[in-house]
Amino acid sequence: DIFTELSSLNVLYLDNNELSSLPEDIFAGLSNLRTLYLNNNELSSLPEDVFTGISNLRILYLYNNELSGLPEDIFAGLSDLDKLNLNSNSLTCLPRSLPLSVSVDIELPRCGNLLTLIPSSLTVAEGGSSSYTVALASKPTAAVTVTVSAGAGVTLDTDTDTDGNQNSLSFSTTNWNTPQTVDMSGEQDDDAIDDTVTLAHSASGGDYIYVTADLSVTVIDDDKAPALVFTPESPTVAEGGSSIYTVRLAGSPTAAVTVTVSAGADAGVTLDTDAATDGNQNTLSFSAANWSTPQTVTVSGEQDDDEVDDTATLSHSASGGDYGSVTGDLLVTVADDDKAPALVLTPESLTLAEGGSGSYTVALAGSPSAAVTVTITPGTGAGVTLDTDAATSGNQTSLNFSAANWNTPQTVDVSAEQDDDAVDDSVTLSHSASGGDYGSVTANL
């Protein structure tokens, strides 16, 4: 209540004071305040109600602090605000509640106003075509135009019904979340190298001003020497479970190509190249039209009586056109499901910068007897935040495993918080499992 007797104050200078925090409602009572200087301090965060009671404020200086985020409604009560200086902070977006009429000295999008690109990356062959979609992540305040541009190597068209290649998409307050299609073609070149092209998306209109997004496109060269491309190059499958990998050709063939897949008699796996056909198939067919399209092979791991992981070599032999002598091997790891219950953390330790983030994965060592939940808890005063599900609002702290996905690593995102000292900190993340035969299993990272 230090300012309660200063209701007639018009200008308040609190700059250059090494302030690291402010109490809630600190400015309550300054009903006639017009200009507030909070610049050149060490503020890393602000309470949502810090500006309550100064509704007549017109100019606010917050530049040269350590702000990395602002509460959504922090400016909600500042109806007369005209000018906001936020330069030299670590902000990546501005609260959506900040009126567009306010003059801000930095060009940042409103928080939550994002472009949704599906898929988030794309592969197209030279001379081939593909497509992706664009939508807005939140309802805009007015009509929005998204302009798409690309470097050399691809051509774009946002409207195939209009002559020529168009490069813009129009969204309104009613169709903002309806995906719109961008068609893309890979251009030919004379080398034998895959190219990477970035598609830049820039929005304008309403509160989507300054919103941008990029999409990475790999243009697969069709002039490469004949070879088989496997993804991933070394898959893992659980005993009693199944996994997949894909096969494509490295370059355009001169004629139709058949790839035959085989595993040794004692390999410990079975293969199927066509799940829609009865029985286990073992061939894949490619042409000049689909050579760059990955085709799926399903691998099933067979049970055995030991507790040792096994490996199997899958042989691939091509025939047809200029692929007549092409072969390729792929090594598959068969993860044993008879191992004693344990948690597998990868990596086993993690290093983060303050204000930075990283991730690690968790999996079970063996197949559980029932569904398993792994709960993660940081130590007291840890200085980190965790999230086990980035697609769900808020920070989640648990992972769910079953007999079907026990060996599939699940990701935990970790963010390091800022503090005021110059000392490195060490934090222990505790993992506690429950369910089935994992009821007493723990692990630390």
Automatic annotation (TrEMBL):
SMART domains: LRR_BAC, LRR_TYP. Keywords: Leucine-rich repeat, Repeat, Signal. Residues 294-320, 414-445 are annotated as: Disordered. The keyword Cell membrane does not apply. One of its GO terms (cellular component) is plasma membrane. It comes from the Bacteria. PANTHER family: ANTIGEN BSP, PUTATIVE-RELATED, CHAOPTIN-RELATED. This is Leucine-rich repeat domain-containing protein.
